[in-house]
Amino acid sequence: MTPHLLIGATLGAALGFGWHKLVGCSSGACPLTSNPIISTIYGLTVGALLAGSFR
């Protein structure tokens, strides 16, 4: 894994978890933001994909 992918994935995971904490979903009806693990994994994936597109 290259350093830019690792940085992008870490930043994305942090932003995904932050999104869950700050915005979240109190009713549990939103599957992406109601669970911190899912939002963190989603952020990690998006961060790695974005970082991989900038070579």
Can you offer a commentary on this structure?
This protein is mostly helical and 55 residues long. It has one domain. Helices cover 69% and strands 0% of the residues. The protein contains 2 helices and no strands. Helix 1 packs antiparallel against helix 2. It starts with a helix and ends with a helix. The relative contact order is 0.26. The mean pLDDT is 90.
Give helix % range. 55-70%
Largest sheet: none
Give the rounded overall mean pLDDT: 90
Assign an overall shape.
elongated
Lay out the secondary structure:
Blueprint: H1 3-22, H2 36-53
Helix pairs in contact: 1-2
Can you summarize this structure?
The chain is mainly α and 55 residues long. The protein has helices spanning 3-22, 36-53.
Features:
55 residues
